[in-house]
Amino acid sequence: MHEQNFGVGELCKKIGMSRTPLHNKIKALTGHSTSHFIKKVRIHQATRLLRTSEMNISQVAFEVGVDSLPYFTKIFTKETGLSPSKYREKSHVEQ
Fold first, then answer.
1. What's the mean per-residue pLDDT of the chain?
2. Is 2:64 a contact under the CB 8 Å cutoff?
3. Residue 72 and residue 55: Cα distance in Å, rounded?
4. I need a surface site. Which of 22, 50, 70, 79 has the fewest CB within 10 A?
């Protein structure tokens, strides 16, 4: 998860499928492309870390394999509707 270069090619190798069958399977199961699915998994992990750890947002981004904080903030906000800091604030208020 924390490997920033982990992408479709690496996922194909890990599970022993070529790109097209993997894409078709993930698309059928999730409705998303393989690369979008990988992003969703990264963001899901980031939400967990923001709720349960004391890591700062840069550390969370790095831990889920995103080395650019602006890019992490962009994809996180697009996926969750909240910036990482607003997400953390909201999750701490709800607990």
1. 92
2. yes
3. 15
4. 70
Q: How confident is the model at residue 7 (pLDDT cuts 50, 70, 90)?
A: confident
Residue 57: CA count within 13 A, CB half-sphere = 16
18-37 as b/e: b if 16+ CB within 10 A = eeeebbeebeeeeeeebeeb
Q: What is the DSSP letter of 12?
A: H
Longest dimension (CA), the chain: 44
Reading the block at residue 95, the tokens are 């607990």
Q: Can you give the three-state secondary structure of 12-70, one letter per residue?
A: HHHHCCCHHHHHHHHHHHHCCCHHHHHHHHHHHHHHHHHHHCCCCHHHHHHHCCCCCHH
Say if residue 43 is exposed, middle or buried (CB neighbours under 10 Å; 0-12, 13-18, 19+): buried
- Given a contact cutoff of 8 angstroms between Cβ atoms, the answer to whether 39 and 76 are in contact is no
